[in-house]
Amino acid sequence: MKRKLKVAVIGCGFMGRTHTNAHRQVANFFDVGIEPVLEVACATDADRAQAFADKWGFTSGSGDWREVMGRDDIDLVDICVPNNLHAEMAIAAAEAGKMILCEKPLAMDVAEGRKMVDAVEKAGVANLVSFNYRRVPAVTLAKQLIDQGKLGKIFHYRAQFLQDWTISTEVPQGGTATWRLDSAAAGSGVTGDLLAHCIDTAMWQNGPITRANAMTETFVKERVHADTGETQPVGIDDACTFFCRFENGSLGNFESTRYARGHKAKYTFEINGEHASIRWDLHDLHRLEWSDHRDDEEVRGWRSIHVTDAGGEHPYMDHWWVPGLQIGYAESFVHQLADFLGAIEEGKPCSPSFRDALQTQKVCAAVLESAAEDRWVDVPAD
Ligand SMILES: NC(=O)c1ccc[n+]([C@@H]2O[C@H](COP(=O)([O-])OP(=O)(O)OC[C@H]3O[C@@H](n4cnc5c(N)ncnc54)[C@H](O)[C@@H]3O)[C@@H](O)[C@H]2O)c1
Fold this sequence. Notes:
Blueprint: E1 3-10, H1 14-29, E2 34-42, H2 46-56, E3 60-62, H3 65-69, E4 76-79, H4 86-95, E5 99-103, H5 110-123, E6 127-130, H6 137-147, E7 154-162, H7 183-186, H8 190-206, E8 209-217, E9 222-224, E10 231-233, E11 239-246, E12 251-257, E13 266-273, E14 276-281, E15 287-292, E16 302-306, H9 329-346, H10 354-373, E17 377-378
Parallel strand pairs: 1-2, 1-4, 2-3, 4-5, 5-6, 7-12
Antiparallel strand pairs: 7-13, 8-11, 8-17, 9-10, 11-12, 13-14, 14-15, 15-16
Bound molecules: nicotinamide-adenine-dinucleotide.
Nicotinamide-adenine-dinucleotide is lined by residues 10-16, 42-44, 65, 80-83, 85, 103-104, 130, 132, 176-177, 179, 193.
């Protein structure tokens, strides 16, 4: 008999759907001793929350997140709301003794992130931040190959996350999805939204980033605000490029923009080591490319590994179909939840915890400070 974990999903937008889908699927595909029960879905609008609850199979909907935090029957709070609400909700959830799964970025800034870390650690509640790309099997395989030493010493880590959806000056700031363009709701632009993913994955695979030197640009300086109808200055970074140093001596090169015409969500990374290189592309997320200098010269070159073997060779894939059949984006959230529930069952922490995500927040802060002041900025280790 599985232990039931009553879940409140706060936010019924894009991430509300991916997380709810994961809660529904996880027990069917992963043999963990804990099963999520969809108890309440919460949004700003009670009717919308109820419609979401009905559609996805929650017991009820609510338009009041504070009332949800106060309920004794909720075990896990799953925070899927804009960034400016993460801290208040997570701290309230921790004080109420709830386990917390929180969307990324952890917080609006480092000071807020520290308060969130203090709250979960003081309360002793299980916590995880949703940097889900770590749990794409090909990305996890890349980490395993690095840890096994197959690349040798790492020289370079480069990552890009390119989009093109805000080029039009007609895109508003504020409102569903477009809150990302409003600095009061998002904190920052591509740095916190997209580069935070790249930074989390990079530090997980290649160790801490110690220093950064960045430039940012806001190409569209004013936009109409969806809430007020007024044209207001844009406070977010539309594009960000930064160089950095990793503690292991390797050099990092990161770029993100929402102005790369033709790209929808082009997240790529390439890692160059002494013996081999690997590269990955979200648009072909089940493949990992590998080039090994130790291969015989006549066959040396890039090979494309279809990361779908189900005999234990490829991470997570033994839980899905048969070799050769791929999975996609949604499943990274199922993996994330399976790992979190497994850790809860064993009473162990799960990474990236709030504390791990705080380190990513510090790199984002160093990047933004560097761009603002046009100089190298150190990333504090503590
Ligand atoms: N892990 C990823 O790949 C990924 C992808 C997209 C977004 N995100 C993160 O997920 C979070 C949500 O983004 P989204 O794309 O789902 O946004 P969204 O605009 O699609 O949905 C936001 C939801 O939050 C709800 N909400 C807003 N204020 C609320 C309040 N006071 N009480 C209750 N509900 C409230 C809205 O009703 C809406 O349902 C953000 O932190 C974002 O950075 C992560």
